[in-house]
Amino acid sequence: MNKADSYKAGLSAEIDLLNDIAGAYKKISEAAIQSAKDRAIEKGTKDAADSYVEKPEKKPPGSWRKLTPGKSVKTDSRRLKVPP
Predict the structure, then answer these.
(1) What confidence score (pLDDT) does residue 55 get?
(2) CA 48 to chain centre
């Protein structure tokens, strides 16, 4: 075998190796993209389910205040007197 044949054999082996690496990279990329899609779908499904869960109604802080008889309470723009 002369130098040219040896060189071509080396190039052929290198091309095969690069094709194997490219194929592996493509498979890894496809798996990563599918994994990201699956996570996005799972998160979207969870967020949608969470939005339909009944949550306790939030009340304004003033609604939890204990009313003392004889004191006035401000509501909107008026003051109301709490009956004794």
Answers:
(1) 67
(2) 12
Measured CA to CA, the distance from residue 19 to residue 70 in angstroms comes to 88
Q: Is the dihedral of CA 54, 59, 61, 65 positive or negative?
A: negative
State residue 2's pLDDT score: 85
Q: And the tokens for 52?
A: 């339909």
CA dihedral defined by 25, 30, 34, 35, rounded to 10 degrees?
0
Residue ranges, the chain, pLDDT below 70: 1, 54-84
Asked whether 79 and 64 are in contact (CB, 8 A), the reply is: no
CB atoms within 10 A of CB 73: 13
